[in-house]
From TrEMBL:
Protein name: IMS import disulfide relay-system CHCH-CHCH-like Cx9C domain-containing protein
InterPro entries, sorted: NDUFAF8 (IPR034595)
Region annotation Disordered: where it falls in the sequence: 59-86
GO BP, sorted A to Z: mitochondrial respiratory chain complex I assembly
Record-level GO cellular component terms: mitochondrion
Length: 86
């Protein structure tokens, strides 16, 4: 039976293809002053790219589906013992 599991590299390739506008904006920001790259220099562009990778752009507008002020949520960790939290 063939596996329908998508490998992480395939997920990354698909996200990269869908987020080319955001990736280009981030790349331009970094290259603009690549000799003096600093932490958070392109934070706004990076967060847009990250959001696009996590959510994807809206099909009709090319914009991300989540407002910029919202942060991605993480799934709760599974307990190894299967028990309820204390």
């Amino acid at each position: 039976m063939p596996s329908t599991r998508i490998r992480p590299v395939e997920k990354f390739a698909r996200a990269t293809a869908k987020c080319s506008t955001e990736a280009a904006a981030y790349g331009k920001c970094v290259v603009a002053d690549y000799n003096a790259v600093q932490k958070d220099m392109c934070a706004k562009e990076f967060l847009r790219l990250k959001d696009c990778f996590l959510v994807g752009p809206l099909p009709s507008t090319g914009q991300k589906a989540r407002p910029a002020n919202m942060t991605p949520t993480r799934r709760p960790r599974r307990r190894l013992n299967g028990g309820e939290p204390p």
